[in-house]
Fold this protein.
Amino acid sequence: MGLQYQSGGGIHLSVVAPAHNEMDNLPRLIEEIAAALAKSAYAWEVIITDDASTDGTAAVLRDLRKKYPQLRVLSMRQRSGQTAALDAGLRHARGTFLAMLDADLQNDPADIPRMLDLLQSQQCDFVNGWRANRRDPWIRLVSTRVANRVRNWLTHEQIHDSACGLKVFRRECIDRLKLFNGMHRFLPTLVKMEGYQVIEVPVNHRPRTAGKAKYGVLNRVFKALRDAFAVRWMQQCTTHCECQEWES
């Protein structure tokens, strides 16, 4: 997590996805990303961070690299969690614009061009996906709604779906951010704290058809609550620590 952000290579868009034991989802994921960006007039890349998978994820990615020259693969030495895997991918990305999404196919890559258009038209700096019609089990839907309300109450926010995995933004939005464990769920708020403009757009959401969810209801709720208090503390520090340089 101490890497420096990269840029260059003429890459316009970098799509980043962390993956742990997603061997059954990755072929379709890369295929859908390639299809969504096939008509692009700009260069793009896909970065998959393999978070120490124990299934056949590594072998699948090796085969996919032969078919898709835009695919780059990072391998974590040990299981480090979604935030660390995401952070590694973002810091290796070379694009002027960055997109992130989950590898479980619940996010739809077809939404990326539309979100990128909003950035390129300079309407905002960060586009956050909003799963307005989520395709999850009812208990997960209820827990997410409660978590979002508590998160917004603690951080004085009005964001509908901060934890949505699909986001597209200018790379400078995260130049100064340190993504501690769990902080990826608060990216819209953290980016706004840096002075950037954030908007939300409804995005497609699909049911999981392969693999297993990595987080249960209880561990997500308690971790999200802990992280919300951390972000609130960061907001207070930002407000209270304003200063002015002396004039000579």
User: Anything to note?
Assistant: The chain has a mean pLDDT of 81. The two ends are 40 Å apart (CA to CA). The helical segments are 26-37, 57-67, 82-92, 112-120, 138-155, 187-193, 217-240. The first helix runs from residue 26 to 37.
